Amino acid sequence: MATVAVIGLAFPTFAEKLPVDENLSFKIIIQQKDLESYDHYIEENLQEFVDNDSDRYQLSQRRGRVFEIYYDLPELIFLKNNGMVFYQAEEYLSKKKKKKKYHEKILYNPGSTESSIFKVKHYTKIQTQEGKHPLFSLVKRRQRAEFFKRLHQDGVKFPLRLKAIFQVSWNTHDFTVFSREKKLLLIRNSVLKGIRSKSEITFGLVRVDINKELFAELEEPQKNSIRDLLIRLKKIGKPLSHDEVDYKIIFQQMEKKIMFFHLQLRYPSIANFLYACVIGLVGGILIIFLFWERKSQKSDQFLG
Predict the structure, then answer these.
(1) Using an 8 Å Cβ cutoff, are 157 and 142 in contact?
(2) Vertex 16 angle, CA 40 and 95, to 5°
(3) How far is residue 137's CA from residue 37's CA, in Å, rounded to a whole number?
(4) If you count Cβ atoms within 10 Å of the first and of the last residue's Cβ in the chain, which end, N or C, has fewer?
(5) Are strands 100-109 and 116-119 parallel, antiparallel or unpaired?
(6) Alpha carbons within 13 A on the beta-carbon side of 141
(7) What CA–CA distance (Å, rounded) separates 115 from 141?
(8) Do 177 and 49 contact (CB within 8 A), yes or no?
């Protein structure tokens, strides 16, 4: 079905603050085999919802790419506190030359307060110890002291112990439903590729945010139609709390699907050695099997 283009409306980003309804907002994990079909499922259901009341609702779509690196202490303090600290680069096309560029930032949330955003700048000269650090070297110099202060206040005594845990790339498909030119419903369907050392996983993560103030202004039949829509969207995947941070969700998926994941975090060289041994063992068994299979075939031919 065709998408209704919304002209003259700024497309929302998920860094933008909305008065979110926690009861109707949620996240869903989608397994790799269902990724394509679920994207179509979202689009069809939203289009049907909009078409049923096209005078009130409009639908806008946008695709994009996001790259992130997540950091934590060796004790995984941020993971345990449902917090996160990560570098993010969101791809966009420049207006004049239509070249690929990136909106870059560092996002920090210890798990109990509002998120803080720090600006990114790439320096060619290293002036201090933090300038060698994989995270703090990215933070704009005049903001580093403030970042360190926040970390100390939140109980991180030695910030330089922070290390990269994994990196992820997202292919995003954003759907926005407008009601009378106001943002009512935001859905981001992302195909995520998570990478740790030489291992990687792929799965889908859907984020649904609904504007509670605008939702409260709707009449009851309109509210019920939105509730029905969200119930349908929940059917395929595994619903999660809206408050569960992406870092924890990705970490748990990696735990399930990557061999020696915790060992890779603590002792990467040992984990890589064991992984190579497993691959070598499987390869050796396969070679032996093929050798005996061929030998058996030759014996059968000789006897025949």
Answers:
(1) no
(2) 80
(3) 41
(4) C
(5) antiparallel
(6) 10
(7) 20
(8) yes
**What contacts 24+ positions apart, CB below 8 Å, involve 218-226?**
218/179, 222/53, 222/56, 225/49, 225/52, 225/53, 226/24, 226/49, 226/185
What does the block give as tokens for 169? 């790339």
Q: What is the dihedral of CA 246, 187, 64, 84, to 10 degrees?
A: -20
Mean pLDDT of successive 10-residue stretches along the chain, which has 304 residues: 32 47 81 89 92 92 95 94 96 84 95 87 90 95 95 94 94 94 93 82 92 90 89 84 90 85 64 54 66 62 53
Amino acid at 267: Y
Give the whole-angstrom CA distance, residue 134 versus residue 154. Answer: 20
Angle between helices 35-51 and 220-234 (to 10 degrees): 170
Q: Which of 261, 271, 275 is nearest to 166 (CA)?
A: 261
* Residues paired with residue 105 on neighbouring β-strands, in sequence order: 88, 119
> What does each C-alpha distance from 242 to 25, 33, 161, 245, 277 come to in angstroms?
6, 24, 30, 8, 41
What is the distance between the alpha carbons of residues 107 and 171, in angstroms, rounded to a whole number?
19
pTM of the model: 0.79
Q: Write the single-letter amino acid at 171.
A: N
Q: What tens digit of pLDDT does each residue of 112-166 get?
A: 777 899 999 999 998 888 999 999 999 999 999 999 999 999 999 999 999 999 9
